[in-house]
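FW: tagging you since you asked about this chain on Friday. Here's the raw sequence from the shared folder, copied in full. Didn't touch anything.
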Amino acid sequence: MHSPEIRVVLVAPSHPGNIGAAARAMKNMALSELVLVRPRHFPDAEATARASGADDVLGAARVVGTLAEALQGCGYVAATTSRERDQYFRIVDVREAAARIVAAAQRAPAAVVFGAERTGLTNEELETAHALIRIPANDAYASLNLAMAVQLVAYELFRAHAQPVITSSPGAAPLASAENMQRLFAHFEQVLEEVDFRDRTQSGTHLMSRIRRFLQRAELDHNEVNILRGFLTAVQNRRRPAGPRT
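HL: got it, structure written out here
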């Protein structure tokens, strides 16, 4: 079965065996693009042993230094979490998320991001995602092994790909890339500073995070990002000092 371009990203994996087992799970479910962000040990003999026949997936794995590098060129991004998050994140069931990822990957590369075994993903890393994936599990012991989480998500992606894909309307623009979204966030932050629009909450630290999250939930395409950046530029231009009066 030919799969759409879906990237599996492991952030700071500490156990090489989990990397190999993740590669095996991917090959089982017709996924081939593995990206490792700051792996503690890779390449490693244990990773090769646990790959158990998925040497091609493991051998083609890319190692990068940052999550931003791992997501270059991607449109839709989903991140996995087992912890409770506040209401500003969109959280979806793994089966629903898989269908959305497969549909989005028809237009542009999509990514699923997994965190480190012990700590998971930070809030900053989660903010790169359009939605968070929750895998149903026992409330008393909901934390899954990294390789097991990859296997479950990969299975749901395989299953979703076997179903009729619900695509966007003809001619719909691809989602804005992760790089373009980061530029939009930086531009937004710059304008907020210039107009002195600040977080008025007690802690005074959440405004930009909330803006990032609602913009990610909006799933902006490239044209919509350009519209927002054009608006922000217009705000900046209106605030520039006028020339000397004549």
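FW: The domain at 178-239 is CATH 1.10.8.590 (Helicase, Ruva Protein; domain 3).
HL: agreed, and Residues 95 and 156 are 6 Å apart (CA to CA).
FW: great, closing this out.
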